[in-house]
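Hello,

I think I submitted the nicotinamide-adenine-dinucleotide job twice by accident. Can you confirm which output corresponds to this input? Input:
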Amino acid sequence: MKNTTLAIIGVGYVGINLAVRFPQFFKTFAFDIDNEKIDSLKKGIDLSEQFSTEEISNSGCIFTSNIEILADANYYLITVPTPLDSYHKPDQSRVLEAVEGLRDYLSPGDTIVVESTVMPGTTKSIRELIGRDDIYFAFSPERVSPNDNFIKFEDIVKVVSCDSKDKLRDLEFIYNKIFRRVELSQDIEASEFSKLLENTSRDISIAMMNEFYQGALKKGIDFKEALRLARSKWNFPNVDKGLVGGHCISIDPHYLSAFLESKEDSIILKARRVNDLMVSSLKERILEISKSGDKILLLGKTYKRNCNDTRNSRALLLYEELKNHTDRIVESFDPYTDKAKKLTDYREYDLIVSLVAHDEFAQLRKEEWTEILKPKAVILDFAQVTPKGLENQFKVYY
Ligand SMILES: NC(=O)c1ccc[n+]([C@@H]2O[C@H](COP(=O)([O-])OP(=O)(O)OC[C@H]3O[C@@H](n4cnc5c(N)ncnc54)[C@H](O)[C@@H]3O)[C@@H](O)[C@H]2O)c1
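Support: Only one job matched these inputs. Its output is below.
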């Protein structure tokens, strides 16, 4: 393959991962309509905090807010947001705008690859929107999990779908440079559907655990112990209870239910409600184990561990609920959003609630916990970050 030039459209949490890796193999542009983001990247600053200044500056990527220079590219990878509108319906307008914005710069043989999560049929609609037989269209769902140390980026299996066999082969060659395994399909709609299946299944599994957790609490069962035992069975799902926020798991089920025209009683929408209700159920639990005027510290504001992303964060929502609608004195700390402070700067709490399992919390030693808490304090270790043995000194709930 000659003269392969890539243009990544949208350099957020997902796009930046492609922008730092592809230039080793192909000339790569990374374009964003957010000029501030591009200016930061040109200075080597990644606002998503996944890459160091050195990694950004040495990547060789051409960060740009000038769409005209993208005319030199022949593969356009679309990684723009796909949120919900105010009625909780899919809002794919940014994908359509991004593709429409490229119209004047496309040349015969170019390929547009949609990586954003979309409703099945969207790639086909985009092809119709552009209305040219000499342009190829593909879909390759993103599976990156920013700052996740459970899987290395290159070990993520990359699904790539395209209805042209030749282009599919070219895309396999391109993606294989940065992903060890590429899973190919000529069925674009099945591939679009697969992404929604992945994230909706996860949402439903977490909802199931959240419901079991609340049931166990009501009946006085130690859920943590029950889960440990259940997990000793080989095929028990490796999922736990949790707060579900962010840009994917809490959003994509709405894309699937809109596509399937699901009724309110569908398992997809029920699971969404169960997971959303975790905020109020945690609030009630906190009120039960604390009293009026107690000083409470919530640990974690982001929607997931080891990441600075607060989009749709349920931990933040819980904080606002407790702070504004209860008579407790509530503070919240997150090492990713409150950079000027350390957890050990906080003192004298009656209750600490862990909400996000950041490494910084899990690495805290027993003595450090002791310094933050009052002698008779209580811990609600929802995110399970406390060290062994702390329960000998404080009442620890899970
Ligand atoms: N964040 C994740 O962990 C994750 C994981 C898997 C899939 N996804 C999916 O990937 C897509 C992108 O998510 P993200 O988290 O990177 O979003 P993001 O908001 O972090 O980044 C998107 C970027 O696109 C830019 N943008 C918006 N409209 C544009 C346009 N018309 N032209 C150029 N740039 C434009 C925005 O300014 C932003 O910088 C979404 O569909 C999401 O569901 C995200």
